[in-house]
Amino acid sequence: MSGKDRARTTLIWITVVLTVVTLVVYVVTVFTHRSNPVWNRALLTYCGVFWVFLAFDGIGRQVAAIGAVKRTAPARPRPQPQPNMPLPGVVGVKRDEAVGPHRETRLERVDGGLKQQVQHMVDDCVKEVLALEGEVPRTEYQAVFDVDDWLRDDKMYAFIIRSGDEIAGVVALAERQSAYEILLIYVRQDLRRQHIGQSAFLHLEEFARLLGLRSSLMAYVSQSNMRGQRFYQSVGMTTVSARSARPEGQVSTGDLVPVDDDPVSTQALARLNDHEAVDIERRKGRLTLTKSLQVLTTP
User: In which element (H, E) is residue 156 found?
Assistant: First the structure.
Protein backbone atom coordinates (compact mmCIF):
# COMPACT_ATOMS: atom_id res chain seq x y z
CA MET A 1 0.00 0.00 0.00
CA SER A 2 1.39 3.39 -0.96
CA GLY A 3 1.67 6.37 1.38
CA LYS A 4 -1.26 8.07 -0.31
CA ASP A 5 -3.48 5.04 0.22
CA ARG A 6 -2.42 4.76 3.90
CA ALA A 7 -3.22 8.45 4.47
CA ARG A 8 -6.61 7.98 2.80
CA THR A 9 -7.41 4.96 4.95
CA THR A 10 -6.33 6.77 8.13
CA LEU A 11 -8.51 9.78 7.27
CA ILE A 12 -11.48 7.53 6.66
CA TRP A 13 -11.10 5.82 10.06
CA ILE A 14 -10.68 9.17 11.85
CA THR A 15 -13.85 10.42 10.17
CA VAL A 16 -15.67 7.24 11.18
CA VAL A 17 -14.72 7.86 14.83
CA LEU A 18 -15.71 11.52 14.61
CA THR A 19 -19.02 10.60 13.03
CA VAL A 20 -19.82 8.15 15.82
CA VAL A 21 -18.81 10.64 18.54
CA THR A 22 -20.79 13.54 17.07
CA LEU A 23 -23.87 11.37 16.60
CA VAL A 24 -23.66 10.18 20.23
CA VAL A 25 -23.29 13.77 21.46
CA TYR A 26 -26.24 14.84 19.30
CA VAL A 27 -28.45 12.04 20.64
CA VAL A 28 -27.49 12.86 24.25
CA THR A 29 -28.28 16.56 23.78
CA VAL A 30 -31.64 15.71 22.30
CA PHE A 31 -32.64 13.41 25.16
CA THR A 32 -31.33 15.83 27.82
CA HIS A 33 -33.07 18.75 26.13
CA ARG A 34 -29.85 20.66 25.75
CA SER A 35 -28.73 22.64 22.72
CA ASN A 36 -26.30 20.99 20.37
CA PRO A 37 -22.87 22.57 20.82
CA VAL A 38 -21.44 24.58 17.95
CA TRP A 39 -18.36 22.36 17.69
CA ASN A 40 -20.58 19.28 17.40
CA ARG A 41 -22.66 20.87 14.65
CA ALA A 42 -19.46 21.77 12.78
CA LEU A 43 -18.18 18.19 13.10
CA LEU A 44 -21.53 16.80 11.91
CA THR A 45 -21.39 19.06 8.86
CA TYR A 46 -17.82 18.02 8.14
CA CYS A 47 -18.66 14.33 8.44
CA GLY A 48 -21.70 14.64 6.16
CA VAL A 49 -19.73 16.46 3.46
CA PHE A 50 -16.89 13.95 3.81
CA TRP A 51 -19.10 10.91 3.26
CA VAL A 52 -20.78 12.51 0.23
CA PHE A 53 -17.44 13.22 -1.41
CA LEU A 54 -16.18 9.76 -0.44
CA ALA A 55 -19.15 8.22 -2.24
CA PHE A 56 -18.42 10.22 -5.40
CA ASP A 57 -14.75 9.27 -5.09
CA GLY A 58 -15.67 5.59 -4.96
CA ILE A 59 -17.85 5.90 -8.07
CA GLY A 60 -15.06 7.71 -9.90
CA ARG A 61 -12.56 5.02 -8.97
CA GLN A 62 -14.88 2.29 -10.29
CA VAL A 63 -15.39 4.11 -13.57
CA ALA A 64 -11.63 4.59 -13.92
CA ALA A 65 -11.03 0.90 -13.23
CA ILE A 66 -13.55 -0.13 -15.89
CA GLY A 67 -11.93 2.25 -18.38
CA ALA A 68 -8.49 0.83 -17.59
CA VAL A 69 -9.74 -2.71 -18.21
CA LYS A 70 -11.21 -1.68 -21.56
CA ARG A 71 -8.01 0.08 -22.57
CA THR A 72 -5.86 -2.93 -21.72
CA ALA A 73 -8.21 -5.45 -23.34
CA PRO A 74 -7.27 -6.48 -26.90
CA ALA A 75 -9.15 -4.48 -29.51
CA ARG A 76 -11.90 -6.27 -31.37
CA PRO A 77 -11.08 -6.73 -35.03
CA ARG A 78 -13.18 -4.49 -37.20
CA PRO A 79 -15.12 -6.20 -40.00
CA GLN A 80 -13.22 -5.88 -43.24
CA PRO A 81 -14.71 -6.18 -46.74
CA GLN A 82 -13.81 -9.52 -48.23
CA PRO A 83 -12.01 -9.12 -51.57
CA ASN A 84 -13.63 -12.24 -52.97
CA MET A 85 -17.25 -11.28 -52.52
CA PRO A 86 -19.57 -11.46 -55.56
CA LEU A 87 -19.92 -8.26 -57.54
CA PRO A 88 -23.23 -6.57 -56.63
CA GLY A 89 -26.00 -7.67 -58.94
CA VAL A 90 -23.78 -9.89 -61.09
CA VAL A 91 -25.26 -13.26 -61.99
CA GLY A 92 -22.91 -16.08 -61.06
CA VAL A 93 -19.72 -14.00 -61.13
CA LYS A 94 -17.14 -13.37 -58.41
CA ARG A 95 -14.10 -11.16 -58.48
CA ASP A 96 -11.62 -13.99 -58.19
CA GLU A 97 -13.14 -17.42 -58.09
CA ALA A 98 -16.37 -19.34 -57.70
CA VAL A 99 -18.10 -20.19 -54.44
CA GLY A 100 -18.65 -23.83 -53.64
CA PRO A 101 -17.40 -26.93 -55.43
CA HIS A 102 -16.21 -26.45 -58.98
CA ARG A 103 -18.37 -28.15 -61.59
CA GLU A 104 -17.87 -28.18 -65.32
CA THR A 105 -20.12 -25.77 -67.18
CA ARG A 106 -21.16 -26.51 -70.77
CA LEU A 107 -23.82 -25.51 -73.28
CA GLU A 108 -26.23 -27.89 -75.02
CA ARG A 109 -28.63 -27.00 -77.82
CA VAL A 110 -32.26 -26.91 -76.77
CA ASP A 111 -34.35 -29.75 -78.19
CA GLY A 112 -38.06 -30.48 -78.13
CA GLY A 113 -37.82 -32.63 -75.01
CA LEU A 114 -36.59 -29.72 -72.90
CA LYS A 115 -38.77 -27.09 -74.52
CA GLN A 116 -41.21 -26.69 -71.62
CA GLN A 117 -38.48 -26.49 -68.97
CA VAL A 118 -36.55 -23.95 -71.04
CA GLN A 119 -39.71 -21.88 -71.56
CA HIS A 120 -40.20 -21.70 -67.78
CA MET A 121 -36.64 -20.44 -67.30
CA VAL A 122 -37.04 -17.90 -70.10
CA ASP A 123 -40.26 -16.62 -68.53
CA ASP A 124 -38.54 -16.38 -65.13
CA CYS A 125 -35.73 -14.39 -66.75
CA VAL A 126 -38.15 -11.95 -68.38
CA LYS A 127 -40.08 -11.46 -65.15
CA GLU A 128 -36.84 -10.80 -63.27
CA VAL A 129 -35.69 -8.26 -65.86
CA LEU A 130 -39.07 -6.52 -65.71
CA ALA A 131 -38.80 -6.40 -61.91
CA LEU A 132 -35.31 -4.89 -62.16
CA GLU A 133 -36.78 -2.24 -64.43
CA GLY A 134 -39.56 -1.45 -61.96
CA GLU A 135 -42.36 -3.46 -63.57
CA VAL A 136 -44.34 -6.25 -61.89
CA PRO A 137 -45.72 -8.85 -64.35
CA ARG A 138 -49.43 -9.45 -64.13
CA THR A 139 -50.99 -12.71 -62.98
CA GLU A 140 -52.08 -13.54 -66.54
CA TYR A 141 -48.48 -13.39 -67.71
CA GLN A 142 -47.93 -14.28 -71.37
CA ALA A 143 -44.50 -15.32 -72.57
CA VAL A 144 -42.47 -12.57 -74.22
CA PHE A 145 -40.18 -15.08 -75.91
CA ASP A 146 -41.55 -18.31 -77.37
CA VAL A 147 -39.06 -21.17 -77.40
CA ASP A 148 -41.03 -22.78 -80.25
CA ASP A 149 -40.23 -19.74 -82.38
CA TRP A 150 -36.57 -20.07 -81.49
CA LEU A 151 -36.47 -23.72 -82.52
CA ARG A 152 -38.08 -22.91 -85.89
CA ASP A 153 -35.76 -19.98 -86.63
CA ASP A 154 -32.46 -21.00 -88.25
CA LYS A 155 -30.89 -17.72 -87.08
CA MET A 156 -31.68 -18.35 -83.42
CA TYR A 157 -29.41 -20.40 -81.19
CA ALA A 158 -30.84 -21.44 -77.83
CA PHE A 159 -28.80 -23.43 -75.32
CA ILE A 160 -29.33 -24.86 -71.89
CA ILE A 161 -26.54 -24.30 -69.38
CA ARG A 162 -25.42 -27.47 -67.65
CA SER A 163 -23.41 -27.30 -64.45
CA GLY A 164 -22.24 -30.84 -63.90
CA ASP A 165 -25.33 -32.94 -64.58
CA GLU A 166 -27.77 -30.23 -63.55
CA ILE A 167 -29.60 -27.80 -65.83
CA ALA A 168 -28.53 -24.44 -64.43
CA GLY A 169 -30.00 -21.96 -66.89
CA VAL A 170 -30.50 -20.90 -70.48
CA VAL A 171 -28.81 -18.63 -73.02
CA ALA A 172 -30.07 -17.39 -76.37
CA LEU A 173 -28.13 -15.95 -79.29
CA ALA A 174 -29.63 -14.31 -82.39
CA GLU A 175 -27.89 -13.69 -85.70
CA ARG A 176 -28.46 -10.08 -86.78
CA GLN A 177 -27.28 -8.20 -89.84
CA SER A 178 -24.09 -6.85 -88.31
CA ALA A 179 -23.53 -8.82 -85.10
CA TYR A 180 -24.67 -11.68 -82.89
CA GLU A 181 -27.11 -10.46 -80.28
CA ILE A 182 -27.31 -12.04 -76.84
CA LEU A 183 -31.02 -12.11 -76.06
CA LEU A 184 -30.57 -13.42 -72.55
CA ILE A 185 -28.24 -15.23 -70.18
CA TYR A 186 -30.15 -16.68 -67.25
CA VAL A 187 -28.90 -18.73 -64.30
CA ARG A 188 -31.31 -20.24 -61.79
CA GLN A 189 -31.34 -18.32 -58.53
CA ASP A 190 -30.36 -21.34 -56.42
CA LEU A 191 -27.23 -21.88 -58.56
CA ARG A 192 -25.90 -18.34 -58.73
CA ARG A 193 -22.57 -17.11 -57.35
CA GLN A 194 -20.86 -20.18 -58.75
CA HIS A 195 -19.24 -18.64 -61.82
CA ILE A 196 -21.82 -20.33 -64.05
CA GLY A 197 -23.01 -17.21 -65.85
CA GLN A 198 -19.51 -16.11 -66.78
CA SER A 199 -18.54 -19.61 -67.95
CA ALA A 200 -21.68 -19.80 -70.07
CA PHE A 201 -20.83 -16.47 -71.68
CA LEU A 202 -17.34 -17.70 -72.57
CA HIS A 203 -18.79 -20.83 -74.21
CA LEU A 204 -21.33 -18.73 -76.08
CA GLU A 205 -18.60 -16.36 -77.22
CA GLU A 206 -16.54 -19.29 -78.52
CA PHE A 207 -19.59 -20.69 -80.35
CA ALA A 208 -20.23 -17.34 -82.04
CA ARG A 209 -16.57 -17.08 -83.00
CA LEU A 210 -16.66 -20.57 -84.56
CA LEU A 211 -19.72 -19.65 -86.62
CA GLY A 212 -17.60 -16.91 -88.16
CA LEU A 213 -20.51 -15.05 -89.77
CA ARG A 214 -20.39 -11.90 -87.65
CA SER A 215 -17.52 -9.97 -86.12
CA SER A 216 -18.94 -9.01 -82.72
CA LEU A 217 -21.35 -9.81 -79.93
CA MET A 218 -23.90 -7.27 -78.77
CA ALA A 219 -26.47 -6.99 -76.01
CA TYR A 220 -29.07 -4.42 -75.08
CA VAL A 221 -29.64 -3.61 -71.42
CA SER A 222 -32.01 -1.12 -69.86
CA GLN A 223 -30.26 1.77 -68.11
CA SER A 224 -32.17 0.84 -64.95
CA ASN A 225 -30.98 -2.79 -65.08
CA MET A 226 -27.72 -2.37 -63.18
CA ARG A 227 -27.36 -6.11 -62.63
CA GLY A 228 -27.32 -6.82 -66.34
CA GLN A 229 -24.90 -3.97 -67.01
CA ARG A 230 -22.45 -5.20 -64.38
CA PHE A 231 -22.60 -8.75 -65.68
CA TYR A 232 -21.88 -7.87 -69.29
CA GLN A 233 -19.13 -5.46 -68.28
CA SER A 234 -17.57 -8.15 -66.08
CA VAL A 235 -17.18 -10.45 -69.10
CA GLY A 236 -15.50 -7.80 -71.22
CA MET A 237 -18.35 -6.11 -73.06
CA THR A 238 -18.18 -2.34 -73.42
CA THR A 239 -20.93 0.24 -73.69
CA VAL A 240 -20.97 1.93 -77.10
CA SER A 241 -24.24 3.86 -77.07
CA ALA A 242 -27.40 4.61 -75.15
CA ARG A 243 -30.85 4.76 -76.70
CA SER A 244 -33.59 6.95 -75.28
CA ALA A 245 -37.14 5.80 -74.75
CA ARG A 246 -39.26 5.24 -77.85
CA PRO A 247 -42.00 7.63 -78.99
CA GLU A 248 -45.32 7.49 -77.24
CA GLY A 249 -47.36 4.44 -78.14
CA GLN A 250 -44.36 2.13 -78.33
CA VAL A 251 -42.62 0.24 -75.60
CA SER A 252 -38.90 0.22 -74.96
CA THR A 253 -38.29 -3.34 -73.84
CA GLY A 254 -34.72 -2.88 -72.66
CA ASP A 255 -32.57 -5.88 -73.28
CA LEU A 256 -35.51 -8.07 -74.26
CA VAL A 257 -36.51 -6.96 -77.77
CA PRO A 258 -33.79 -4.95 -79.50
CA VAL A 259 -34.54 -5.22 -83.24
CA ASP A 260 -37.85 -4.20 -84.75
CA ASP A 261 -37.48 -5.79 -88.19
CA ASP A 262 -36.75 -9.26 -86.84
CA PRO A 263 -39.84 -11.58 -86.85
CA VAL A 264 -39.08 -13.13 -83.47
CA SER A 265 -38.43 -9.73 -81.91
CA THR A 266 -41.58 -8.27 -83.46
CA GLN A 267 -43.71 -11.08 -82.03
CA ALA A 268 -42.08 -10.69 -78.64
CA LEU A 269 -42.71 -6.94 -78.71
CA ALA A 270 -46.36 -7.52 -79.52
CA ARG A 271 -46.69 -9.96 -76.60
CA LEU A 272 -45.03 -7.51 -74.24
CA ASN A 273 -47.29 -4.67 -75.42
CA ASP A 274 -50.40 -6.81 -74.94
CA HIS A 275 -49.32 -8.02 -71.53
CA GLU A 276 -47.62 -5.10 -69.82
CA ALA A 277 -49.05 -1.91 -71.45
CA VAL A 278 -46.09 -0.08 -69.98
CA ASP A 279 -46.32 3.70 -69.63
CA ILE A 280 -43.50 5.06 -71.77
CA GLU A 281 -42.84 7.93 -69.35
CA ARG A 282 -41.78 5.41 -66.70
CA ARG A 283 -39.28 3.65 -68.97
CA LYS A 284 -35.67 4.65 -69.30
CA GLY A 285 -33.34 4.29 -72.25
CA ARG A 286 -31.21 1.27 -72.97
CA LEU A 287 -27.52 0.71 -73.38
CA THR A 288 -25.78 -1.09 -76.23
CA LEU A 289 -22.84 -3.25 -75.18
CA THR A 290 -20.50 -4.99 -77.63
CA LYS A 291 -17.50 -7.27 -77.68
CA SER A 292 -15.37 -8.06 -80.72
CA LEU A 293 -15.06 -11.68 -81.86
CA GLN A 294 -11.97 -11.03 -83.95
CA VAL A 295 -8.82 -12.74 -82.78
CA LEU A 296 -5.73 -10.59 -83.20
CA THR A 297 -2.75 -12.47 -84.60
CA THR A 298 0.86 -11.43 -84.99
CA PRO A 299 2.95 -12.40 -88.03
Answer: strand 156-163
